[in-house]
Queue: 2 jobs
Job 1
Amino acid sequence: MTAPLAFVELAHVDIDFPLYHGNARSLKKMVVSSVRMSADARHRVVVEALRDVSFRLTSGDRLGLVGRNGAGKTTLLRALAGIYEPVSGRLRVQGSINALLDPNLGMNIDLTGRENIMLRGHYHRLNRAAIARLADEVADFAELGDFLDLPVRIYSSGMLIRLGFGLATAIRPQVLLMDEWILAGDAAFMAKAQARLEDLVRGAEILVLSTHMPEVIRNWCSRVIWLDQGRIRADGGPDAVLDAYLERPTV
Amino acid sequence: MTEASRANLEAGCVLDFHANPSAAARRQAAWRDVREAAGLWRLGWTLAWLDIRLRYRGSMLGPLWLTLSTGIMVAAMGGLYSVLWHLPPRDYVPYLALSLVLWNYLAVLVTDSCAGYTQAEGMIRTVRMPYSLYAGRIVLRNLMVLGHNIIIVALVDLLLWSWPGPAGLLALPAMLLWLADSLAVAVLLGAVCARFRDIPPIATSVLQMAFMVSAVIFRPQTLGDRQWLLAFNPFFSVLEVLRGPLLGEVPGVGIYASAMLFSAVLCGMAWLLFVRARGRIAFWL
């Protein structure tokens, strides 16, 4: 039984965020000019998060996303994860997806570590035995010890990030989407995390990574897309795009 | 982690989003959402159970607090109103116990549904999960609460020896109707309340009003020859098709017709809204 080869395909994808709640008009006055806002056909105020984004990734591709804060990197990752559906254009993803978007990844901090692991296991449709193994494995990696059966709320920030990381990286997908938080952490933890992450990245057919760290992109990515104000500003090899990106005039 | 990866592969999901999808594509996506949620029933069950566990974590009685407080309520109100209205307690208390327990389910279901998607914002924004699963979680959670409260009804039946008899079997199809309606309410209110934040307070006041007029604490017979008016109250007819059989009474044809009609409208509206709004919910939060 082999799964079909993974691919990711976007054709002229637009994503808008309508501003329904709060006073859109006064908000509009407040926001800085770098935020792209307009009114749609029904005169609602919308934030244009992504505009005319097109690219295709096939098995083996390692894509890095760069761009300023608010350029649309996280929105693009969420769209690839199937959370935001585009308002225009077409988006197709083939293959199992694991999106490491947020360190807490929907974790409920009032539940214990074990319960959170159990929920994740059910989410991935694991059976009871596999969930028990997952709990052991993640607790071992995160060095939780007896904290496994205590609420996540009382964990130290280090434990929390180790749990989030361990859990997120325990499931091996075909398409791996990573936001930069995963690369943050103290030095001791990073050394430990590195091997696990590299293993995960190697196991995935497609990687999409959003980060501000050029050296990570140079190490891991075979292609880079530079997002600027929701549009693709450059798309190409890591060196060419990164050089252009790093030399951009600071605004 | 080979097993995990294999299970994940088998789940192998393919996303395919068109902008401005055709009505048929939207229906397909909504149907797929429901199928995926059904496949994740164990997750829904665990989420619902943890919700309850969390609410009573550290308390001695746990969810049995629900049973206890309902029991006290039934005892107090049953004693008072049977004297006020000169009703024999043997007749009135089982009626009141059942009415309160069922109404409590309905009322909490509505309030929970209003907060359904808004409360799950963090989860919706970080993991892709079928939207109908959130609705299923709310319904399951409230069914678990109902399961704790129904103990009181059984206890009253045992003490006053007021079991429903063979008519009680009619409660089974009514339960299916309630299940469908519950899911429809959770989907409908969840989506509408995510978009329009004024709906939850409106829903609360409508519920309060409905509690007063829907023959929950008074017997419909007390309305005399104006009883027929009750058939136009959807809360009453839906309540009565389940309550009647559990009290050993067979509801009239008019009540059944009214309950089915209102349920059909409710489920139809919920489905149409879900088909239309599913892809937009994440943007409304």
Job 2
Amino acid sequence: MAGKIILCRCEDVTTRDVERAVATGFSDLEEVKRYTGFGTGPCQGKECLRAVALHLARATGREPGALSPFTSRPPLAPTELKFFVKGRDTTKRNG
Amino acid sequence: MSRQAPPPTSSALLRAEAEVAIVGGGIMGLALAYNLTERGVTDVVVLEAHHLAWGASGRNGGGIRQQWSTEMNIRLMQESIDICGRFAQELGTNVWMRQGGYLFLCRDPKMLARMEAVIALQNRCDVPTRLLSSAEVMDLVPELDVRAYAGAWYNPTDAIVFPWPFLWGYARAAARAGVEIHTVTPVTAIERRAGAFELETPKGKVRAQRVVNAAGAWSPQVARLMGLELPTWPARHEILSTEPLKPFLRPMVSVIDTGLYFSQSLRGEIVGGITLHEPRHDQVQLGSRLEFLEAMAAGLCEAMPRLGDVKVVRQWAGPYDLTPDNSPIVGEAPDVPGFYLCSGFVGHGFMMAPVVAKHYALHLTGGPTHPFFHQWRLRRFAEGDLVRENLIIG
């Protein structure tokens, strides 16, 4: 099981993936996000950011508080595109 | 990963001397660094203010198209797409290239009529673009609602890539050959001393024989360190990504009248943007706006009504580096020998980088000089000899 602990469930990023990112030279959460894809799935980091940050801090010998989180992106939660179309009847499917 | 690669980023102190210092660790700077090593120049440092993929190179839609309106750009992009196709094998990094073509939709009948000559030019260059009937569009992408469009055209050999690994690939290959890549290393001052340049950074100084400004939307600030004014300015361009869907969309789809474009990535997401006009700023703006999300949702739902039920997962912004004639600025700065420009790619730098960097490296190492060095020279603005390229999207 070593290394196969999943930190990001949306994108299947494991502890080993994060360690590999560190070994490749990436040490910030923004970089590790781009390298592993963690935090880019439906949860957008809400479930995994803390877990990855803790593991990254451990892997790089830093305090978790020394890491900056990645930029969070709108919308707050995944939302159907039709809700953003002005004047559209959103009660109908494909409407 | 079977291939052992040195780190693409280096936290060590700067070396004191380098033959070439490249300012900007985006696709252009990294591709140039790699191509210089291919030409035997390995004494190169890349100085990136943030981290790799921070600027437009890490924020774009990954579109690679050969549908341009001048012969030079068409032929350049043919060469670029060839390089992309060999990238995984030659550089050892999979860039998730998918050659699904570009489908353009057009509302304006006059624009459609003008496109005939452009398509004929592309065909003469062996790019197989052709006009499509509504029925052919529906065959290609049955989910589209084609009623609003006067016509469509399609080139099956255009492609998309995933931008991030493209950068890692160039960075890794350059680092393997000896290039030092420094992230979180902004250049704060440049001084000319005894025929060379001294670049100051928080990690110390490096003295370089030649400097290349490949800082994208930040290149005017870098040029100003040298007392040089570039006629370029940054413009925010926003983009969004949806939840992943089962693969269904083959080509990149673009509505030429509105600048809407979208494609399905190999991760299954619909990724795309649309043109929004905004007041001119001198500083790079990277905030996300509801206004964009509304315009994009409306554009997507009109072109492909089914997408209304698809969830948008995130939106973000990247900076276009605009020029007065929508064409780049390259070559040695007129009054600063040894200081080279490589910016102003107007949102198309990513797709052009593989070929531009290749020819740039040839130019810097005494090889043949591609005609783009003349067409895209900085002096053209003073001389009134502007470029006429009008297929700029987004």
